[in-house]
Amino acid sequence: MRLLPRRLPIVAGLALTALVTTQPGIAQARPPHERPVDVQLLSITDLHGYLRPHDDAANGTVKDAEGRTIVVGGAPYIATHLKRLRAGHKNSITFSTGDNFSGWPTEVAYHADEPTIEFLNRVGVEFSAVGNHELDLSPSFLRDHMGKGRCFGEIDVDSCFTDSTGRRFHGADFPFSAANVTAKGSDKPLLAPYVIRWVKPERGPKIPVGFINLTTPTTVNGSTSYQPGLDNLPLVETANRYAAELKRRGVEAIVANVHEGGTAGDVYDRCNANPTGPVFDFARQVTPDIDAIVTGHWHALFNCSVPDPAGDPRPVVEAANHGRLINEINLRIDPATRDVIRSATTSVNHPVTRDVPADPEMVTLVDHWVNRGAQTYARPVGTITGDLTRTRDADGESTLGNFAADAEYADSRRTPGGNADLAMVAVAPVKGSVALRGDLRYAKGTNPADADGTVLFGEAWSAFGYANPVVTVSVTGAAIEQALEQQWQTQANGSVRFAPLAVSGNVRYSYDATRPVGDRVNPADVLIDGRPLETGRTYRLAALAYTLIGDDGYTAFAGFTDAVRGSRDYEAFRAHFAQGPVTPPALDRATALR
Known about the structure:
single chain, 5-stranded mixed beta sheet
């Protein structure tokens, strides 16, 4: 495995004549001695809405081969670099490898990730693979809202915001594509499995280039993208299937655009001697009919060449994340065979440096959404009569934790097919992310829009959640008892860690901390709607997907069934303020017996 050559001699004067298909079922003779067709591929991956330039090391820098730090990123600079890279290229195709949105900058996340679509539209992205985060809300959100601009809720409050040009959001000007995401039990892709782009030779008919778009097989069971109504098909088999289909359609030049990553060092344009990860396994196995592999998902940065199963090298590249790099692959296509001349392929990762002029239109775009973010932050969403805080009592209860559990319970009861019997929230998980992130105080804060008892949109956003869905599942009473027992976990040094779970307001339970770990809760002392827990009965439980799949460190819920996805944590939390002035919940749901 080696770094791809940056520059190779032009391959010209190919004395070949062939019958080639310009469209399915149509063939014509090509004259000899035609020059190869140069095709430039420009890609970004895992942008996650990072339009505003960031200055921290993780989001705003890369390292070069000498270990020097280069400051990078930001929509105004991505736009400038794309324009410069395209200059002089007759055939240039720009695309994304997924995870464009569902990110963390609030000026984007507050606005249904519409600012990212505005940016991608304006810099000329032609298509995008579906990353796992493209499915963080729902397939219909991706297809109908992001793709077609269909509004939901109140316009310019919940969706279809006014963009930086003064126009209402209209959706992506490009398609999203995923060959291996299907409805449950189906092998038919939910979206188009591939995209074909046509490039122009010096003379004669255009030549097709096919892009098979795939996402990590962990998508539909991931914590934020958890989609119980969908299936993931395997990567290699799916790519091989559609490569064969493209060839039947007369497409010989094929690229796999795969939202699945690996690691190959930490230098932005190098490849170490032993690259690892699922995308490299994919590269070693997938059909030689694929000429290049562009990847994402792991937020890694590498420029590798990996032999295909026939022993021929092909590029495998990943352009980091958050707009720090742009990958450029240059293909040379033989106009006679319409296939890629592998030996002439070059690839390079370009750092999105800030030593170029900032694109003025993108500066306006960023400023618009940052200012709009400040306005959205200050929008009132509810009122409280006292503090909702993370401060826990001796039993592990907090007013904020209890309120969050009630919000999840209410969301499930509103969700068709949810109908939870109870809800649980990991307020101090054994591992992983903490859902309770900030306190809500009765006293007004420093924001001019705030007042005593007022909860602002941004305050609620910062108090609870990390874009995780509320999922309602069927579990046994024994699993609920086990989860309550797992609040106490023995550590390697023999100490016992207390990792409390908040429960919804219709639950009361007692525990005996003097008993051994794993035997502190008696099912008879757990009351749901006033009735003792039955270990052999099936209950409907609402919790965050992160907790249910074990990422919080509680294993009790493994094997749950009949999952129904509700709102994301942010929306469920805000919606619970609609009941009117919120009084902090009493801390009376868990009681120590002694």
